Amino acid sequence: MVEDGYKERGLRNKLVAKLRQKGIQDERVLAALNKVPRHAFFDNALLSHAYEDKAFPIGQGQTISQPYTVAFQSEKLEIRPGDRVLEIGTGSGYQACILLELGAVVYTIEYNQVLFERTREFLPMMGYKPYFFLGDGSKGLPQKAPFQKIIVTAGAPIVPAALTDQLADDGILIIPVGDRDKQRMVRIRKKGGKLTQESYDNFAFVPLLGEKGWQ
Ligand code: SAH
After folding, report:
1. In this predicted model, what pLDDT tens digit does every residue of 129-168 receive, in sequence order?
2. What percent of the chain has pLDDT over 70?
């Protein structure tokens, strides 16, 4: 276990204040970011960067998302305790921890075997227990559907139909859609079988791979 002392807690408080300034309003989301020790996801040599509002490399050419992005997507999901949430792109596991702090039951799927194995071992050691899956999340996770919420944490070329299909009624999907290096954040709501869509600002995610992702 990593130490989580006075200094780290102070840095987290500052980060949360910055997220509030940037427009994050949901107090439960801010409290979750204030609780999860983001520095535990960093190599020793990079520790000083853990509480900057920046994405960071986690190996295998992948990144731990920027705290603002994690907060933004989490807020837009309107998580209620007990919601079954599918996360596509486990990566470091940081976003999954935030969802768990919000009271969700989390199913997380990762395409990269090295990251899958690493995070599946690491998260439970910190006390966080999502259900881990290895595979192509661009097809969703049909065997565990439906989900109240689905979050895609890699940039997609299109909204895969499998994901809206696997959404429960009254469900929400949040997904960055666009080209390889820049995407618009899109939120899709399902109500009475009908889909409505809202778009937000641009973000820059690593590409979603797999059948409905980038080649
Ligand atoms: N949520 C992560 C962010 C990870 S970056 C975190 O909190 O750290 C995006 C991740 O999506 C990478 O780990 C990448 O390997 C994974 N990914 C890319 N395409 C995927 C796919 N089709 N299915 C599942 N995971 C995918």
Report:
1. 999 999 999 999 999 999 999 999 999 999 999 999 999 9
2. 100
Phi, psi (degrees; rounded to nearest 5) at 57: -65, 140
- CATH code, domain carrying 197: 3.40.50.150
Q: What is the tally of structural domains in the chain? A: 1
Instruction: Judge whether 145 lies within some domain.
Output: yes
Question: Does residue 155 line the site of ligand 1, with CB under 6 A?
Answer: no
C-beta separation of 119 from 142 below 8 A: no
Of 97, 98, 109, 110, best ligand 1 pocket probe by most atoms within 8 Å of the beta carbon: 110
Residue numbers in the chain where pLDDT is lower than 50: none
Catalytic-residue membership of 138: no
Inter-residue contact 107 to 59 (CB < 8 Å) = no
Position 136 in a domain: yes
Q: Which domain holds residue 118?
A: 55-203
Is 161 a domain residue?
yes
**Structure tokens of 7?**
């200094």
